[in-house]
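Feature request, filed as a ticket because there's no other form

It would be nice if the structure record came with a short human-readable summary line next to the tokens. Right now we just get the raw output. Example of a typical job, pasted below so the devs can see what we mean:
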Amino acid sequence: MKKRLSPLSRFYMGIIFLFLYAPIVVMTVFSFNASVSTYQMDGVTLYWWKEMFTNYAAMSALKNTVVLAIATAAVSTVLGIMAAVGLFQSKNKLYKKSMNTVTNIPLMNPEIVTGISMMLLFVFAGTLVHKSDVLGFTTLLIAHVTFCLPYVILNVIPKLRQFDMNIYEAAVDLGCKPFSAFFKVVMPEIMSGIITGAVMSFTLSLDDFIISYFTNGPSFQTLPIYIFSLTKKRVKPDMFALSTLMFVVILILLVLMNVAQSRADRKGEKSL
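Raw output as currently delivered:
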């Protein structure tokens, strides 16, 4: 029998959801405002949505952000799969514990500490090669992969633990090469974890600001940094429209990720 929530618990949950989603609702509503006011609706229009797509600086920053997020997700996924398989197959318990601890450091470390430390590292590396403009897309990619990689590892390892490695060994014994057996036998079984890790890497890279602020250069500006630069003056509703668009895209990705996860769980329950 399911236990029903008390009125006080429902009220508390309602307050939590209100604080979480009320700003997003307000932002979405005012992106259709007919004036530049951020507190009074003067009609409904699509002008600011059209203005958003004609804003070259915003679209350029959006393109940079999406390219960076896709590259981060791709690199993090590939490295995360290799790292997860290596940790899973390792027989040295001390090594596994040490690597798991190292993997969790980017998750627990404050972002401002990670951002400043990586900026100092990149600047130091630039002085060694006598390059002053070292900060740019490459440094942003390295920084984003650094804090996204643990999420891929932590999503893939549980799937590897659920997989029966005897099936992989049987495929190898029957003549399949280890590399081919991994892609044909193991990969389909851990695909849900890979997709989850890739989507998380994409979304985390998409909205990161603190680490990007310290590791970006003048030649490559991401959307969060561009929006932050607008806070020094009045932000127009076209930025509300752009933020709403990003929220919708991330929401769709999260829904697809949850659907893929639920299908994988149902498939696992049927196979038992």
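Something like this underneath would help us a lot:
The chain is about 80% helix and 0% strand.
Residues 12 and 250 are 26 Å apart (CA to CA).
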